[in-house]
Design brief:
By secondary structure, the protein is of the alpha/beta class. The chain is 37% helix and 13% strand. It has 11 helices and 7 strands. Helix 5 packs parallel to helix 6. It is globular and about 50 Å long.
């Protein structure tokens, strides 16, 4: 990471990717945004907080039998740096989830300072990265609270389908609650419209409704629903390596440019 004029390394942008609904492209967005940010030259860490571990397997990490995973970081005070694994993408790293994380919601209830565990862990490695992306589970429990409390920003993927905004109000209320009680700098910074099907009028109507409601927070790029995006995780690859010339790869590259503020690579 480059130093500023004072010689100090700037802290990374820590972004929680959250949506309490399942099947809305949250993990797909996390994995592919992370890969595209790394491709742009940003050193990026992906933190998998979802007990399903799909972000981990989607980047080729076998999350069975891991010596150290996010479960150990949150419940056994293992340093986050001990958990981090490199991926096949240069500049992209992942802190994987294991199935043990499924029991963490219950185990965390009795832990003192439970809402700050991930924040403390991320702060310990922050200087090594430009971006930290946190893949939150599709729920509003203690794991998601940890993700929101560790982040500066929230990115919300919204599928271009009926009931797209269903449950979003509750997510925004929880973001506001975390902001008031735990993390006063937290903001919903980005909305990404995903699973866009140009063949339907409904998709256009949903995008218009989201843009009318959230304004400039909505990415100009919409991510299409494609078979190749669906296939890539089963091969343990992000879309930019699985099918680099596909519409999905082009869309997520553009989303990464919008999130990062431009296409220029950062000098390392």
């Amino acid at each position: 990471m480059t130093a500023d004029a004072s010689g100090r390394r700037p802290l990374p942008r820590v972004i929680a990717i959250a949506n309490q609904k399942g099947g809305v492209g949250k993990t797909t967005t996390t994995v592919n945004l992370g890969a595209c940010l790394a491709e742009l030259g940003y050193r990026t860490l992906l933190v998998d907080l979802d007990p399903q571990g799909n972000a981990s397997t989607g980047l080729g990490i076998d999350n069975r039998g891991l010596d150290t995973s996010m479960y150990h970081v949150l419940l056994h005070e293992a340093p986050l740096e001990n958990c981090i694994e490199p991926t096949a993408i240069k500049g992209l790293f992942i802190a994987p989830a294991s199935l043990d994380l499924a029991g963490a919601e219950i185990e965390l209830v009795s832990v003192i300072g439970r809402e700050y565990l991930l924040r403390n862990a991320v702060n310990a490695v922050a200087a090594d990265y430009d971006y930290v992306l946190i893949d939150c589970p599709p729920s509003l429990g203690l794991l998601t609270v940890n993700g929101l409390n560790a982040a500066q920003e929230v990115l919300v993927p919204i599928q271009c389908e009926y009931y797209a905004l269903e449950g979003l109000g509750q997510l925004l209320r929880n973001v506001d609650l975390v902001k008031r009680k735990l993390n006063p700098t937290l903001e919903v910074s980005t909305i990404v419209c995903v699973m866009y099907d140009a063949r339907t009028k409904l998709a256009d109507q949903v995008v218009k409704e989201v843009r009318d409601h959230f304004g400039d927070k909505v990415c100009k790029t919409v991510v299409p629903r494609t078979v190749r995006l669906s296939e890539a995780p089963s091969f343990g690859q992000p879309i930019i390596t699985f099918d680099t010339a596909s519409r999905g790869a082009s869309a997520y590259r553009n989303v990464a440019k919008e999130v990062s503020g431009g296409p220029a690579k950062r000098t390392r």
